[in-house]
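Researcher: I'm comparing several assemblies side by side, and this is the next one on my list. It has 219 residues spread over two chains. Same procedure as the others: predict the full complex and return the structure.
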Amino acid sequence: MLRMSRPETAKIDLPDGEWLLVKRRLTSGESRARTRAGVRSDGGYDLVAHGEATVLAYVLDWSVTDVSGTPVVIRDQPQSVLKAAVDNLEPESYTQILRAIEAHEEAMAKERTEEKKQTTGETRLKPSFASAAP
Amino acid sequence: MVIRGPAGEVRWGYHTAGAVGPWMITRDAGVLQLSASLIESNAYRISQRPLAFAVPHSQGMWRWPILELQIQDGALTARLGPMEK
């Protein structure tokens, strides 16, 4: 089934009462942009850039505070504000966020797979063969 | 009542559906009316519903639901609902 993306969100709970609000799924355009972000000029693929693009593509809001306990506001802010905030996370915190988003993406993919299995009336192409008769 | 601003956005959920330049919200007989110049838009997203008019600020965004929307020759007018909290 072909479908258009919808701006749905999902909350990811993290340890110690922390949380992320993320896009439930990326649009095809966002997914392609994320993939392009990792392509290197030498033809290789930069997984670090891919990870960064993943975080920036998915995160909408979070519970992160600065050292004084003031919330680090990213909701509805420009991408540059989000990037600056993400770049200033401690490395372990960044990794925790990235892993949480990757797990979420995997869960969404599994959900889709299950939906497809339950879809009825699936159209199956029958193979055609040239006649073997002389 | 009149509120003005230099820039704002039309939002579909968390997506930006359009960018507006100088805008003005007036209240007349309890009805909030938005007038703005539409600078650019995503043709698909701006056709979706529901939309909201949003003005970013340092601590987040002011949002009003768009109840009715008209766009003509780059001019955007809309009837807005109460500001979202």
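Model: For your comparison table: Chain A has four helices and three strands.
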